[in-house]
Every structure is written in structure tokens, then in C-alpha cells.
Amino acid sequence: MNLRSTFVALLMATSFCASAQNIQLHYDLGHSLSKNLSGRPSVTTTVEMFKPDRWGSTFLFTDIDYYADGVAGAYWEVAREFNIAKGGPFAAHIEYNGGTTSIEHTATAARFQHALLAGGAYNWTSADFQHNLSLQAMYRYTFKGQNRGAFNGFQATAVWGTTFAKGMLTFSGYVDVWYDPDVSVRLITMSEPQLWFNFSALKGMKDVHLSVGTEVEVSNNFVIDDLGRQNRFYAIPTAAVKWTF
Q1: Alpha carbon distance 62, 195 (integer Å)
Q2: Reported confidence tier of residue 10, pLDDT bands at 50, 70, 90
Q3: pTM here?
Q4: Core vs surface per residue 122-159: b (16+ CB within 10 A) or e
Q5: pLDDT tens digits, 21-41
Q6: Rounded CA gap, 181 and 221, in Å?
């Protein structure tokens, strides 16, 4: 399951008043890198939406994972920011995370413990909108799950995006660190840097909003392998395409 807590489109809320949506298709290489990840879904689609307004912005995404015979699971997040001062970098941030997954070749399914987050954000965008940074500090309440109780914690998030080489390349991603009492050192770390080549930057292809690239899911204590172990470090790449509309 790919997790994208808050994506680079959210960064553009500070100054750029235009909606942005995209759909992504990722081929996950995790099952090829480790025998303990053989049950990991190979394909994920992601749909993202970002919409600013005069009070702030709304961002949401949905990940859907697939096995060969159908959908493996779905995960979504929705975040709302309220500007603290017009034109300023600070915002109040609220967010919901939740989803479900299944095990290949079985009827077994599981729900992720959904979570509610609230806190503050600092958003910076360069004058040409090509470079962006968001820093977020949030209280995180994780609701009671199937096998464990509710708990309180925190989450710190950094989100970045930079477009360079005359618009041909975009490097973006995020880093999340959050509290979980059931893992080693009580912390889960998750990052998903992405590198895209943008066809729209080529001569005569302005209206071709296609990008090709890769994402690397870098995590510690997040991925649950085929043996049920979670306290591991993984760096799992994908091959990906994206259409922005």
C-alpha cells in the first residue's frame, strides 16, 4: 500500500490560486526485491485533487492497490487548511486518514485504524511557483482498531517540490514521522520521493500533460512483510506514469 500523506500540490496553496488534479499508475517492484514481499500488490493507482479558495485549500487523494484478480485495498486521505492571515505562510491544518486491505488468494480483509490529525502548517512557495516547501506539526488521534485500542500521538510532516531543467523535471515528495506504540522506538518513518519527466515542457507538446518517472517508498517500521514483521527498513521503487488535468 502506497501512502501519500500530503502531496506537493498542497504546497502550491500559499500563492497559486488554481485547481490541480492528477491520476497516477505505479508498478511496484517490491515483490521482485525481496521474497518476503511476494504478496505485495504490484499495481497502484492514485487520484489526487487540490483546490484552493479564499479561506485556504482542500487536498485529497485515493490509492487503490490491485492483485491480478482484482482490487487488493484502498486508502484515502483528505486535508483542509485554513489560512491564518491572508497571504501569510501559516495555516491551521486538519486531516483524516483511513482505508482497508486484503490478503492475496484469501477472503481475509483488514481495516486500517483510521486517524484524525490537527495542527499547524508553514507553507512556502517561490515567486515563480517552481520551488515549494511545507512543514506541518500535528496532534494525531488513532481510533480503536480490530486488534488494538485507540491511542494519542503526534505526526511531523515535511513536503517539498521543485521543478527544474526548463520545466522538464520535477522532484517532489514528503517525509512523515508519527508515533505508534506497537513498533520499535515507537516511531514510524515514511517517505516517498518522486522524480518525473514532464512531456509538456517539450517543444510543441504544451498540451500533453503526461509525465513518466519513479517513486521510491522509503520506510522504517511501516511495511508488514509476508511473515507479519513490521520492524524493518525498506526502499521500494516503482515505475510510474502520471496525467495532470
Answers
A1: 20
A2: very low
A3: 0.90
A4: ebebeeeeeebbbebebebebeeeeeeeebebebbbeb
A5: 999 999 999 988 888 888 889
A6: 11
